[in-house]
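Entry type: protein chain
Record version: 2
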Amino acid sequence: MVGEVVCECTIPLLTADLINAIQNGCTMQTILSFGLKLFVIAMLSLGFGSLSGWFAAEAAAGFAKNLRHDLYYQVQGFSFANIDRFSTSSLVTRLTTDVTNIQNAFMMCIRIAVRAPMMLVFAVIMSIRVGKQLAFIFAGTVPILGLALFFMIRSALPLFKAVFKKYDALNNSVQENVQAMRVVKSFVREDYETQKFSAASDSVRADFLKAEKILALNSPVMQFCVYTSMILISFFAAKLIVTSGGTYLGVGSLTSMITYSMQILMSLMMLSTIFVMLTMAQASGKRICEVLGETSSLHNPENPVYEVPNGAVDFDHVEFKYSASAKRSTLSDIDFHVKSGQTVGIIGGTGSAKTTLVQLICRLYDVTDGSVKVGGRDVRAYDLETLRNQVAVVLQKNVLFSGTIKENLRWGDPNATDAELQRACELACADEFIQQMPDKYDTYIEQGGTNVSGGQKQRIAIVRAMAMEPDVMLFDEPTSALDPEMVGEVLSVIQDLAKEGVTMVVVTHEMGFAKKVGTRILFMDGGVIAEEGTPQQIFEDPQNERTKDFLSKVIHVI
C-alpha cells in the first residue's frame, strides 16, 4: 500500500513537469522520456494495488474464519445455563451477520484505513511543495468534514445497536417456523407465521432505514466539500498565475494542485466511509465479545479426576434451581443411592422434575446445594469429558445428525468397527430395520433424522449410547416413541445391560415398564421424592395413598 500511494502521488508531479516542459518548448525525446516514466510508475501502482487488495481480502477472510472458529469453540464449552442466557437465534446471528460486519470493517480498515491516511499525508506534502498558499484551503475543509462525521456517527450508532437485537427476533421467527413446519401446516397457521415474520422483518427495515438515512448524508457533505475546494483552488490559482505572470505557479503546477486536492478530499471521503463501517461493526463487535467473554458455569477443577471407578450413583440432599433468582427450588432434598450395576426406575407426573434429576448425573447442570456422586466421587471433581464418556444418555427427544447411520452410531465410539456397531444394533433391535434400508448402514440420515421414524431414531440413539460402553446409562422416556412390541424389545435390552453390570437410571411415565425395569422405584412429585421402594411396595401396597392418587390421575387421563 505504501508503494501504491507513493506511485499515485508521484504521477501528478511528473505530469506537472511534463506540462511545464511542453510550455517551454521541449523536444519529442523529452516527452517520450516523461511518458516512459509515467507508464512505469502507473504499472507499478497497478501491481502494488493488486497485491494489497489480494492480501487484504485474504487477511479479512482469514480473520472472519478465525473469529467464527473461536465463537463456535466457545459455544461448545457453554453449559446449558450459558446457552439459556443467549437464545439459539441470537447465537446464529452473531456467528453469521455480526461476523460478516466485522469482516467487512476489517477489510476496509486494512485496505483503506491504511491507504487513505498515507495518501492524505503524501498529497498534503506534495500540494504544499507545489503551492503553499493554496494548501491552506484544506485547513478550512477538514473541520467541516470532521464535525459532520461526528454527528452522523453519534446519531446512527444507537440505531445499529437496536437493529441487531431485532435481527435475533427475525432469526428466531425463521427457526421456530422451520422446526415446527409440521405443526404450522397441521393447524393451517401459515398466514399467521407469515405475518409474524413480516412484522419482524419490517422492524429491522425501519431501523436500518433510519440509520442509512443519517449515514447517507455523508456523501453529499463530502461532495460539497470536494467541489467547493476545487472551485476555490481554481479561482485562487488562476489569480496567482495572472498576478505573478506564471512565475509563482504554472499551468502544470495548477493541474497537479487540482489532482492533489482531489486525492486529499477523496482520502477524507474514504476515511469517513471507514468510520461509517466501524459504526456498524462496533455494535456487532460488542455482541461477539459478549459471547467470547462469557465464562462457562461448568468447568474442570484444577486437578480433575480422569477415571470413573464404577457406576454407583449417589444424591446427597440435593437442592437445585435453574436460576439463582428463582424463588422455588426445582429439586428439593433429593437423597437416594444406587449401587453399581443396579437399575432404578423414576416415575412421576409432568413437571415433577424427573428429567432435571437425570441431567445432574452427567453434569449438564451443577447442583445448587448438596452433591451428586458417581463412582463415589462428586461429579464436579471429574474431568467433564471423562465423566460424560462414562455416563451415557438416551434422551426423550433424540437428535440424529446429517450423515450416514454408521457416522451417527460412531458418536458413541469413533473407533468402533463395523462388526461392533452391527453387534450393538442387534442387541438394541435396530439391525433388522437398518438391513431393510437401501444402503443399510451407509444410508444417509437427513438433517434432524426426518427420513426415519421416531422409533427407528430412538433405537439408533440407544445403540449410539451403548457404543460408549459406559458405567452408567440414563434413559429419559426411552419408549415414548415406540409401539408395544418395540417397548418389549427395549425392556429386554435394558435388562441385558443390567446383567452386564451397567448402572441403569430409567425415567418413564409407563407404570408397567417401570414395574418391569426397576429393582427400585422412585416416585417423584413436585421436585421431591414422594415415595421410594420396590415395585411391589410402590404399585401394590394398598396403604400407599400418594401413589394411588397419582395412579388414579394417570388412569383418568387415559
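Comment: The two ends are 76 Å apart (CA to CA).
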